[in-house]
């Protein structure tokens, strides 16, 4: 809480210094009220196995319907929420909503939730997650937490303990956006991840841009396999990329080719169809936005 308050002050200071301050201040004020006004909602994007094409889970992706500006993407408002002390409230909302919805899906189907480093570093995080799982009777193994290496950049001596406690709780851990930051290999050693999510920048167009991306993906897959971790390729949009991803042995795919993020109704429908059609373009679905 002290950290959040500090960040809030810092935000205010910065805003008074810059010309874009008022627009930012307005957006920040809007975001502070967005939750209470019901403007935030959670979209779900399917994650599909490369062998057999069945859906193994969904990633929860928060959405903001701004009453005047229309939809604003999380790439824009999550950093704002992190800087201004709102991320824990928003993050808990996403976690609760996602776990509640996932509890209505057939058992092996998982839910992946993004966890901001600020949430991860909250001393109550394990307790919070455990309480939400209990509240909705979701088996811990069906919750996957997506963590970026930002978690390791914060100087927090409790990081190892938090990882250990999350593992003990039985939730799964995924390292998100792998390959985009600094010295990611060191982080693989530090924490007991179950999965590596290969960043879109290596995946999109991998089949067409020559051999560099596919060499990198191949290396990540080999690394993950040696460490006993799954892999998910993010951002698969074309059949050429899908075919390449399969050939390279990536275990799961997430991308517009199998489905865009859709609402809870669309996800429930998708989740209850045990397998999806594998042939050609018939596998592309258009969930409600
Ligand atoms: P991420 O966790 O890496 O999520 C994957 C992003 O890739 C999502 O963007 C998704 O819509 C997009 N994506 C998936 N497949 C494709 C594809 O085939 N083509 C293209 N062009 N894009 C694809 P989105 O929903 O805009 O989210 C952006 C980022 O915002 C996320 O990246 C994550 O870092 C953050 N975020 C979203 N929801 C939350 C949340 O609840 N909490 C936190 N802390 N961060 C969140
Ligand atoms: Mg993610
Ligand atoms: Mg990612
Ligand atoms: Mg990302």
Automatic annotation (TrEMBL):
The species this protein was found in: Sphingomonas alba
Parent-protein start and end of this portion: 505 to 793 of 893
EAL domain mapped to chain residues: 24-275
Organism superkingdom: Bacteria
UniProt-recorded name of the protein: EAL domain-containing protein
């Amino acid at each position: 809480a002290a950290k959040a308050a500090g960040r809030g002050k810092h935000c205010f200071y910065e805003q008074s210094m810059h010309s874009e301050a008022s627009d930012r201040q307005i957006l920040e004020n809007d975001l502070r009220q967005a939750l209470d006004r019901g403007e935030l909602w959670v979209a779900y994007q399917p994650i599909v196995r490369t062998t057999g094409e069945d859906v193994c889970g969904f990633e929860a992706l928060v959405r903001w319907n701004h009453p005047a500006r229309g939809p604003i993407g999380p790439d824009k408002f999550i950093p704002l929420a992190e800087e201004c002390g709102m991320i824990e409230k928003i993050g808990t909302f996403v976690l609760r909503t996602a776990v509640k919805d996932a509890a209505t899906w057939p058992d092996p189907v998982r839910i992946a939730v993004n966890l901001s480093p600020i949430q991860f570093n909250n001393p109550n995080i394990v307790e919070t997650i455990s309480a939400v799982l209990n509240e909705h009777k979701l088996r811990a193994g069906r919750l996957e937490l997506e963590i970026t290496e930002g978690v390791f950049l914060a100087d927090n001596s409790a990081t190892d303990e938090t990882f250990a406690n999350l593992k003990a709780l039985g939730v799964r851990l995924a390292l998100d956006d792998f390959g985009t930051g600094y010295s990611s290999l060191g982080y693989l050693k530090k924490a007991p991840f179950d999965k590596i999510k290969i960043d879109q920048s290596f995946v999109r167009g991998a089949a067409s841009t020559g051999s560099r991306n596919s060499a990198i993906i191949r290396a990540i897959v080999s690394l993950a396999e040696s460490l006993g971790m799954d892999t998910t390729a993010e951002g698969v949009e074309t059949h050429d990329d899908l075919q390449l991803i399969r050939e390279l042995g990536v275990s799961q795919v997430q991308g517009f080719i199998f489905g865009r993020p859709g609402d809870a109704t669309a996800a429930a429908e998708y989740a209850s169809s045990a397998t999806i059609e594998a042939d050609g373009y018939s596998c592309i679905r258009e969930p409600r936005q």
